Amino acid sequence: MGDPKRRLDYSKRQKDWVVKNIYEKKDYTFRRKLLEAAEYRRRESNECLGDQVLPKPDLPPNIAPMPRPSKEAAFQRYQTRFEDN
């Protein structure tokens, strides 16, 4: 399995930078068939749907009120509730 990968994220709840695990990517290959079936049903249907689209909000790139620490410093402070197996 190897060493777990981790990243730094700012937590609004803890008001500090926290270490989070990076998990493997999920497999979404089933979506193609699902979208094709939905598109086919939409083309064959006579229903009229609204075209309401919300604009994307203008968000700042970072919400943290403090500077990001180095990864090494964050990993040294990192504690987990679970034992390493």
Could you please describe the fold and organization of this structure?
It is built from 2 helices and 2 strands. The mean pLDDT is 83. By secondary structure, it is α+β, with helices and mostly antiparallel strands. The chain has a domain of 38 residues.
Give a quick precis of the structure.
The chain has helices spanning 31-44, 71-77, and strands spanning 5-11, 16-22. The protein is α+β, with helices and mostly antiparallel strands and 85 residues long.
Keywords:
85 residues, alpha+beta, elongated
Physical arrangement of strands within the biggest beta sheet: 1-2
Order of helical and strand elements: EEHH
Sequence stretches where pLDDT stays below 50 over 5 or more residues: none
| Arithmetic mean pLDDT | 83
Percent helix range: 10-25%
How many H/I helical runs? 2
The radius of gyration is 22 Å
Helix and strand arrangement:
Blueprint: E1 5-11, E2 16-22, H1 31-44, H2 71-77
Antiparallel strand pairs: 1-2
Biased composition (Pro residues): 57-68
Protein name: Hypp6121 protein
Region (Disordered): 43-69
